[in-house]
Amino acid sequence: MNKPYSAAVDRNKDPIYQVVKQYFLQNKLLLEIGSGTGQHAVYLAEKFSSLDWVTSDVEENHNGIKEWLKDAKLKNIKGPETFKVGIDDFPKKSFDYVFTANTLHIMSWKENKTLFKLLGKRLREGALTFIYGPFNFGGNFTSDSNEEFDKLLKDRDPKSGIRNFEDVSKAMSAAGFKLLKDYEMPSNNRLLVFERLPH
């Protein structure tokens, strides 16, 4: 099969790298939730050769991820694991980092909250969660393009849509995390970094 390709990932992969390189340490274990095409995994795992990167996604995206991993031939990428929020159990490993890009607005808000609770239950103190994507602030869109994107999402699935930063922060706080930093990213996106507090 032809490898799936996302132009958006090509545009955002280096800005994401510039942020995560401030946090990622070698010899750690990372779970990527919603690996999509697999492009983020290939690009970022190559930058951190002794960081074990575990890909995960719903079953229908596995073949595309496998194509990217096969061509990349990187020893430090594992998976893909099957993980659909609300259906599958959280992968049973002790992860130091969780990375997810452009997933919250695809899932329903109920699935978002389920994911945050799972992260709180499964991540130990000091583990970091990185959430990339568009967010609203104070219930308002940050750009016309985000408003148009939100309409497209809701036309396809009324339960999807761009999430409010305040709602995500509040739900993550309730799950036992503190927000370390909210990074402004290109194309009206953000990268939120959360740390698991002591249980």
Structural commentary:
This protein has helices spanning 7-20, 39-47, 62-72, 109-122, 144-156, 165-174; strands at 29-33, 52-57, 77-82, 97-101, 128-133, 135-136, 163-164, 177-185, 189-196. The protein is of the alpha/beta class. It has one domain (15-134, 161-181): 3-Layer(aba) Sandwich (Rossmann fold), CATH 3.40.50.150. The strands form two sheets. It has a seven-stranded mixed β-sheet with strand order 3-2-1-4-5-9-8, with helices on both faces. A two-stranded parallel sheet has the order 6-7. Helix 4 (109-122) packs parallel to helix 6 (165-174). The termini are far apart. The model has no long low-confidence stretch (mean pLDDT 97).
Question: Keywords, please?
Answer:
199 residues; alpha/beta; Rossmann fold; two-stranded parallel sheet; 36% helix; globular
Explain briefly what this protein structure is.
With 199 residues, this protein is an alpha/beta fold.
Give the SSE layout:
Blueprint: H1 7-20, E1 29-33, H2 39-47, E2 52-57, H3 62-72, E3 77-82, E4 97-101, H4 109-122, E5 128-133, E6 135-136, H5 144-156, E7 163-164, H6 165-174, E8 177-185, E9 189-196
Parallel strand pairs: 1-2, 1-4, 2-3, 4-5, 6-7
Antiparallel strand pairs: 5-9, 8-9
Helix pairs in contact: 1-2, 4-6
The level of helicity is: 25-40%
Count the DSSP helices. Answer: 6
**Reported CATH architecture:** 3-Layer(aba) Sandwich
Uncertain segments are: none
Using the CA coordinates, give the radius of gyration: 16 Å
Would you identify the CATH H-level superfamily? Vaccinia Virus protein VP39
- By CATH, the topology is Rossmann fold
**Alpha carbon gap, first and last residue:** 45 Å
Q: Major sheet, described briefly?
A: 7 strands, mixed
Could you state the oligomeric state of the chains shown? single chain
Q: Report strand order across the widest sheet.
A: 3-2-1-4-5-9-8
Secondary-structure-derived class: alpha/beta
Strand percentage lies at 15-25%
Secondary structure: number of strands: 9
